[in-house]
């Protein structure tokens, strides 16, 4: 059963240096507050995808299917690490979205690999040795195969959770469900913890409590991405991040002020500021 706890406690109990960690969202419900807490607690040599971790030198290998600042451009800290080994060399394993989704599903099913139609005519298989081909024993069709994704811990953000630990996700989702089911442990930050989901159809409960290790209430925990029904995407922050991440010194200063010396409670204040700004823009 999931334990309702502080984010600090959940991170300390569920991730360690050297782990493979997934931080999943799809432009919506990106678990930024959880990622920041992991950074504050100093975990390093991680295998994951997250620009700010890379810029702090915490990542050994990045496994990903998209590396970009949504709607803006590059992930500049990732590019700097790949091209210049700053602040440390970075191994990368790039996949298509379809491959990553199927790999999580395979991990959730306890299978060693994912088999699917894909990569026909694509160049990724020429640079990624983990993309293989198999022949269907029934039809003779040539199919793509990739290793299953089985994170040590997955982090996601959602709208609501019950005190028992059932998690409700509404709106656009990516592979959050699959990432949780494939992982050994799962930490979910939510906008609010409620007594029950009596006013919601039971089929809307995406993740039952027995799949979750910890639930943490962190209002605004997906900022600057959005949480349907709670707050909009902070487009200005994404644009500003492109400028911040371009310069190494500016990046490190920003991280020190806004991540390493911040708290999960700061996300609530950021959402309040965003709502105030949006209100002033509309009046």
Described by strand count, sense and barrel closure, the largest sheet is: 7 strands, mixed
Structural shape: globular
Query: What's the number of extended β-strand segments?
Result: 15
Annotated CATH homologous superfamily of the domain at 3-41 and 150-276: Glutaconate Coenzyme A-transferase
CATH-defined architecture of the domain at 3-41 and 150-276: 3-Layer(aba) Sandwich
Strand percentage lies at 15-25%
Give the structure's gist in a few sentences.
The chain is α/β, with parallel strands linked by helices and 283 residues long. The chain is 33% helix and 23% strand.
Question: Could you list some keywords that capture this structure?
Answer:
283 residues, alpha/beta, seven-stranded mixed beta sheet, three-stranded parallel beta sheet, 9 helices, globular
């Amino acid at each position: 059963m999931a334990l309702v706890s502080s984010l600090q406690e959940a991170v300390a109990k569920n991730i360690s240096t050297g782990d493979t960690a997934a931080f999943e969202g799809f432009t919506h419900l990106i678990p930024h507050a959880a990622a920041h807490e992991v950074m504050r607690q100093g975990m390093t040599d991680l295998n994951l995808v997250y620009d700010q971790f890379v810029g702090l030198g915490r990542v050994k290998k990045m496994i990903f299917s998209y590396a970009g600042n949504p709607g803006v451009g590059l992930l500049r800290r990732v590019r700097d690490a790949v091209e210049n080994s700053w602040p440390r060399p970075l191994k990368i394993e790039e996949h298509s979205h379809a491959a990553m989704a199927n790999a999580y599903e395979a991990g959730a099913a306890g299978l060693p690999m994912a088999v699917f139609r894909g990569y026909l005519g694509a160049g990724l298989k020429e640079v990624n040795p983990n993309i293989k081909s198999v022949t269907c024993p029934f039809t003779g069709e040539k199919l793509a195969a990739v290793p299953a994704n089985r994170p040590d811990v997955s982090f996601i953000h959602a709208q609501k959770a019950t005190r028992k630990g059932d998690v409700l996700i509404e709106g656009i989702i990516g592979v959050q469900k699959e990432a949780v089911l494939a992982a050994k442990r799962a930490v979910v930050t939510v906008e609010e913890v409620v007594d029950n989901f009596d006013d919601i159809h039971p089929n809307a409960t995406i993740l039952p409590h027995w799949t979750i290790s910890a639930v943490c209430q962190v209002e605004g925990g997906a900022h600057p991405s959005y949480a349907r029904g709670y707050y909009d995407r902070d487009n200005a922050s994404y644009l500003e991040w492109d400028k911040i991440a371009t310069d190494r010194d500016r990046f490190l200063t920003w991280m020190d002020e806004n991540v390493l010396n911040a708290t999960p409670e700061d996300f609530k204040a950021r959402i309040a500021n965003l709502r105030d700004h949006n209100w002033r823009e509309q009046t």
